[in-house]
Design brief:
Layout lengths: L1 H10 L6 H15 L3 H6 L5 H20 L9 H17 L6 H14 L13 H8 L8
Length: 141
């Protein structure tokens, strides 16, 4: 529950920078507690908390878009992709310090900034994200 209260603090960021601050704070947590969060969040008991967190992340995204910090066509499912890929970068670069994931996150955030180019590929649907999150799921190749 404490994590959700911290997330709400970021929602109140007056300049719309809450999403970016939250992403860096979450990455720091993932990097300092490798593997723990996956096990912690992979239980039935955490479903209500995960839903609440997702709602807050959606509010952070909306607020960042409202302030012109994040492109309008970015979706909550894009943030899911960001977290999944960030986790991979953190695991892959664990022996070289924080420079790897810091660089990666800054590149991803630069791509999420408003710009003239439209995103050609449509976002994942909520159903696709839920399928990815299901344990022991068969994969399409």
């Amino acid at each position: 529950m404490g994590a959700i209260l911290v997330m709400y603090h970021y929602v109140r960021d007056p300049d719309g920078d809450g999403l970016e601050k939250f992403l860096y704070a979450t990455a720091e947590l993932l990097a300092s507690n490798r593997g723990c969060l996956v096990r912690l969040w992979d239980t039935e008991e955490t479903i209500p908390i995960k839903r609440e967190c997702r709602a807050v992340i959606g509010a952070l995204l909306t607020e960042a878009q409202r302030h012109g910090k994040i492109r309008r066509d970015a979706q909550l499912t894009d943030i899911d992709l960001l977290f999944w890929s960030l986790r991979g970068v953190i695991e892959t670069t664990k022996g070289v310090g924080h420079e790897g994931w810091h660089r990666f996150l800054s590149i991803i955030l630069a791509g999420l900034r408003p710009g003239p180019e439209a995103l050609v590929q449509p976002p994942l649907t909520e159903m696709q994200v839920e399928l990815v999150k299901m344990p022991a799921r068969p994969r399409k190749t």
